[in-house]
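Re: that chain you flagged

S.,

Sorry for the slow reply, it's been a week of failed gels. I finally had a moment to sit down with the sequence you sent. For the record, here it is as I used it:
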Amino acid sequence: MGEQTVDSYSDPERLRHFMRALLSDVLALEKMIEGGCLEKGVRRIGAEQELCLIGRAWKPASVAESILPHLPEAFAPELGRFNLEFNLVPLPFRGDCLSQLESGLSEHVGLAREAARREGYDVLMTGILPTLRKTDLDFEHMMPRPRYYALNSAMKRLRRGEFELRVIGTDELIVKHDSVMLEACNTSCQVHFQVDPDSFAHYYNIAQVVTSPVLAAAVNSPMLFGRRLWKETRIALFQQAVDTRPTGHHVLDRSARVSFGDDWIRDSVLEIFREDIARFRVVLGIEIDEDPFAVLASGGPPQLKALQLHNSTVYRWNRPCYGILDGKPNLRIENRALPSGPTVIDEVANAAFWFGLVMSFAKTYPDVRDVFSFDTAKSNFLAAARQGLDAQFGWIGEKIIPAKQLIRRQLLPMAREGLQEVQVDEADIDRFLGVIDARVSSGRTGSKWILESFKSMGQDRDVKPTEKMGALVAAMLNRQVKEAPVHKWKLARLDEAEDWKNVDHRVEQYMTTELFTVHEDEVIDLVANVMDWRHVRHVPVENSDGKLVGIVSYRTLLRLLARSMSTTEGQPVPVKDLMTRDIVTARPQTTTLEAIELMRERKVGCLPVVTDDDRLVGIVSERDFLRVAAELLLSSLRRG
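Prediction finished late last night. Pasting the structure tokens below so you have them in one place:
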């Protein structure tokens, strides 16, 4: 969860002091490994759960500050004010540990839900909240903590420009943002696996190999801002959201702060820590009051605060972690690739699958590098994120195997053997691996459910994507609280989000984002044809900088036709000669009431929706509000 009292080091002298402490921590860890000071012979598992807070209209609710005081110490804030997270106490990896993990997750989610509902909100487990809007990522929605302000400041300084996101799937998303808040779109269920220091490299390499098929079966984040992207869009989103590498004219071998890695580990966890210190600049710092060698000399375990803080700003999908439990220092592997949701039982099934595969592979392959190339492991990871269960995996023996076939025929039996090896209760093995088997057999992952539900809600042009997103969230919550795994869920329906009492009625909820614009120097004939072809009554006009400078209405063209002014002295008429320059606009967060009053006052039939820098992001018309009024009336009549 990370230290909160931190600073973004721009002062060179303070930076040098922190770097010296960081290097000292690495040397101390090396001494601890050589001296056998780290815990051995103990297997533990754990989990960290991230949650979305939702409110009116099933949208993100930036209310974490009012919810957290009502929750136990296990809960902590996240980057976005619409998120929460909690850590579970680690469990011995044996017996009924999986049932205990499920109980712990369910109990804490229940506590969060109870606290949220007392304030009129709720919580949801999902990889990316479908109703998230770009305006939810404005700086005001960042959790007001020194750590997050410092992180944002440092990342922006290293980036030397805006953060860019480009993801291509069924649809395409290209967007820029001025802070690291894009990262706040992601919510995960991170699972932990404690390993001995002497065998860390062996287990870490295996964790890398088996993460891909587990991810393929666990995908739950196929959409962002209404666009259908990767089956697990979090993977692409997170890498780009905190990518500090500036673009340039030369090709440089620089790694992203979020990555799968670049090679196998050969001997020790120290290889990862040293590489990350060498590759990635310090972005956060704290005043270090610990001499790790003095602590070791006194017989105690050092906190290694500098190393832990730097490690928390390098986001490997399988991340090494140092920690202390009951006075004993240990090493663990943190799997960060698995999404939150769709239900607790789905999350524990994903974890059981991963834990079992790690144990089974460790016994079957003394050195996985002998049978697997790193490039294949990395390619498999990206294939799983992009395609989920439709992925084709490169596998042992240079075979190409469909994900579903690989999981059902080879990997589920291996996971069972791995769990049996540590004497996990047979009933738990049957239950949780049975969920994976049923999910893979049916093909119904969380992502598949979302995409099929979205498609089933139809292509009616009058149904806005925001309505579909709201229905998805409403349906997720309805099914999630019933705790049936996702492969048993019925598809979402539009009417599941019909309760207009919970709608906040803002322009962005109803605006059309599929825009057809023209340049101010285009011929007016183009506007007439666009209106005819696309059945629209208003066409926005942009200049060469992509900013809104005018609008042409259907009435304008009628006046032109009446005056027979399609040409002036035989020359085509440019759009800029006829467009309305005195444009009445709205912002995405403008309420519908304000928008309707503005349209009546200014006697206009539509409102272009623009950002603060006059970039067009949508358009809302009288027709949109007429449909809203009809739905409100119907809803009122049904209730009456």
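What I noticed first: The first helix runs from residue 12 to 34.

Talk soon,
D.
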